Amino acid sequence: MCGGPNIGCQYCAPGFTLTTDQPAKCRINCQGYCATCDSLNPFSCNTCLAGYTLVNGACQPDTSCNNNAICQVCPFGYSISSASTTIVFNQTCQKCNQPNCARCDSISQECHSCLTGYYLSGSACTQCSLGCATCLGEKFCLSCASGFTVQ
After folding, report:
1. Which letter, b or e, does each residue of 26-61 get, where b requires 16 or more Cβ atoms within 10 Å of its Cβ?
2. What's the pLDDT score for residue 85?
């Protein structure tokens, strides 16, 4: 909620972050796997989430650890696969077989969580209802897509 130009914001709507400058403002959260982003452009990344590499201001999935089999974290849509179940070595990032799956079992390929905008239905990812940005099920919307409001 924001007051006048000199009062600033006290809190922000979902999808926005309160800035630390005075007066405080609400700015859109970083997008596209950014850990931090340009204060004026949420799609221009300064740093990336683990499992991603910064390329020209965008965060791209990084599976280069596969070259040395030393993966410790994988981008969304991949799971860590190891050559041994008892000793952790030869770890690589293996792509999940299920569409829109964020994390899956490296052996069974069963999906455990879905990408944003999808929910887990059994072991498959199903798209959230129209107007819903994040959800836990067909009728349980957590946040609204841009241009939509809670009804």
Report:
1. beeebebbbeebeeeebebbeebbebbebeeeebeb
2. 62
